Amino acid sequence: MIAIAAGLSMTARAASVAGAPQPDARAFASRVGGKTYLSFSPQHGTQVEYLSSDGRAYLWYPGNQQVLAGQWRAEPDPFAPKFLESPIGSGNIYEAPPRFRLCYRYGPATYNPVTGSSGDKWECQGLFQGLGEARPGDFFGLVRARAAPLVLSKQRYSFEELRALVRRR
Fold it and tell me: Using omega within 30 degrees of 0 as the cis cutoff, is the peptide bond preceding 87 cis?
């Protein structure tokens, strides 16, 4: 599940209590978009996804011969804590920085094989542990590719390993 803190420092967190402007989902999305992400989970394997700045998503998923085109958006995480304590046990409570989650939607002929959810409905991920590695831009050319650069197995790959495999083809 993906929920990402807005990346505020302790100083910015303290300022948020004083009424400073809070980042919104649009500002957060502008920092996430325009990058290629590589993530791994035992359930899915290595996934590569380019998230464009205009809300389009291109997923290179293990076992697929095609790149899946879809949409993504950022929205406030309704399950994020509203207040935090730092250090823990100190009684020093402050307003938590905004947290966002990423939501995805793919076509009606797609589905998430782990959850069984249909791909034509928005599916949001919260409580993020890490998007994994990121590279600026469309690192593997997924936007213009119809076919996946190669069919991925469920093993763990790095960007460099995938780039070497793609170059050998």
Answer: yes
Q: How many CA atoms lie within 13 A of 92 on its CB side?
A: 7
Question: What gap in Å lies between CA 95 and CA 16, rounded to an integer?
Answer: 7
Q: Which of 136, 135, 123, 134 is nearest to 2 (CA)?
A: 123
Closest Cα to residue 119, out of 74, 51, 52, 72? 72
Nearest to 74 by CA among 16, 148, 128: 128
Count other C-beta atoms under 10 Å from residue 34's C-beta: 14
Quick: pLDDT tens for 46-99. Answer: 999 999 999 999 999 999 999 999 999 988 888 888 888 888 889 889 888 778
